[in-house]
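FAQ: What does a ligand-bound record look like?

Like this one, built around adenosine-5'-triphosphate:
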Amino acid sequence: MAPGATRRVAVIEGEDAAPEAMRPTLELLSRLPLDIEWVWPKVGDAGLEAHGSLFPDEARRVIDEADTTLFGSTSGKSAPALMYLRWGKGTYANVRPARWMPGCKSPLADPRGIDLVVVRENLEDLYLGIEGDSSDLDSLDLQSRTARRPLRELGPGKYALKLITEAGSERVIRFAFELARKRKAAGGRGHLTCSSKYNMLPVSDGLFRQTAERLAPEYPDIDLDVYIVDDFAQRMVTRTQELDVVVLPNLYGDILSDLAAGIVGGLGLAASGCYGDDYAYFESAHGTAPDIAGRNIINPTATILSAAMMLEHLGFTEESARIETAVEQVYAEGKQLTPDQGGTSHTTDFCAAVGDRL
Ligand code: ATP
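The answer part, i.e. the structure of the complex:
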């Protein structure tokens, strides 16, 4: 991206309560002096209406011509667009920060100083979505290492394929090392934690661990810790402040990043960005919160902070920091918080409070 050029951002609102977070977030951004052209690819119902498809070619073109995409959450109709943003654009590193801000409703007695980032591998592992009937595997003559029996003797069932590739592991672990280095340069701890179930799955999860250990000598300024994922889950709760950057295969990353969000105050705070070599897009880590749709009470913090990550990616570093500071101030004051944070304010009140502090 050329410095100083107008940036183009594609916006996809998503479904259920997601637009209720996205719209006031965009209004907030409009208060900043940002040289951004916003474009709205027609996906989901809008795509069906205009072009007869949930993800028409025209929407793909709009995304391709934009510098990045800001995505609300999807519960289905925008999902084909999301698949394109992930697998089509190769956004392999899902970055999910969990930083406690004073005023956020953490369940920990002392959440002060929690500032970690989960880097979740975003494209492979069980999320390749290869499942089927176990009888499909009969011809492979597979043997269970633990049950010590041939697979076909276990009876009818279904399987899901977990694939950890060398290249997929290396690129995301490198990304995590680089992020730890960048954070260290800004005063961070210079620490990377890698975790997987390498004791039970020494071949697949073992590869993930071995890749981290193989790359570690290239990053002598970063300390690497390795834990089995169940042990790591308890450390995440009991020794949260010790964590800096954490790198995990896809499924563990999905689950444990929600745990990290819960530790600092809930999914409503969980921002995220998905980065590839040539493209990145930004979306809150939570889902569409269908149970609270239409009530103007969804916590927009995750969407606002995802937008702040996007601004930083686009080179609007100062504006990104202004948004984060304004959000921090609203939590510190504690007067305009949404119900998930113990408040009684509406989504739009929270956004207005952030806007007033910009
Ligand atoms: P997905 O499968 O897409 O991850 P999910 O079905 O796990 O989604 P979410 O939509 O993430 O579920 O919601 C889980 C719970 O957290 C719901 O009760 C929802 O209302 C709540 N929640 C999620 N996001 C927010 C938010 N931004 N503000 C308030 N509550 C939220």
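Follow-up question: can I read anything off the structure? Yes, for example: The chain has a mean pLDDT of 96.
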